Design the sequence.
């Protein structure tokens, strides 16, 4: 009987460890869009994976096989700062009364085809 309790306890501990590990690794959002060999990745330079209200946050749009001159970025509070080496530098500052929900939609377009358009949802 003791053996069954020990096995049950070991199983519960094992499940808890796996659940804790996976919940921590899945919390970090990645903002990546890929279309064949083309790729756009948003990197929030504050080190967080979220934006804060009323605070300017610098971000990079890292481009692979897309030129910065072909990229259009549209989103509330997004300000273009420049581009260099395949990165488009922006600053995002969202006022707390600008959004209906806690999600900012950032639309990118880099061509005429529908698959060359994407909407990132940043929490």
Sequence:
């Amino acid at each position: 009987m003791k053996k069954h309790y020990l096995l049950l306890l070991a199983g519960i501990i094992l499940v808890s460890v796996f659940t804790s590990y996976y919940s921590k690794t899945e919390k970090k959002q990645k903002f990546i869009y890929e279309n064949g060999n083309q790729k756009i990745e948003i990197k929030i330079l504050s080190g967080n994976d979220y934006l804060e209200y009323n605070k300017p946050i610098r971000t990079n749009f890292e481009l692979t096989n897309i030129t910065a001159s072909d990229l259009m970025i549209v989103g509330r509070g997004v300000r273009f700062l420049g581009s260099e080496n395949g990165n488009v530098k922006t600053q995002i500052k969202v006022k707390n009364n600008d959004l209906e929900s806690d999600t900012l939609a950032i639309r990118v377009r880099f061509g005429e085809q529908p698959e060359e358009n994407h909407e990132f949802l940043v929490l």
User: Anything to note?
Assistant: Residues 21-27 have pLDDT under 50 and may be disordered. The chain has one domain: 31-122. Strands lie at 31-35, 38-44, 57-64, 72-74, 78-84, 87-92, 104-109, 117-122. The chain is about 20% helix and 40% strand.
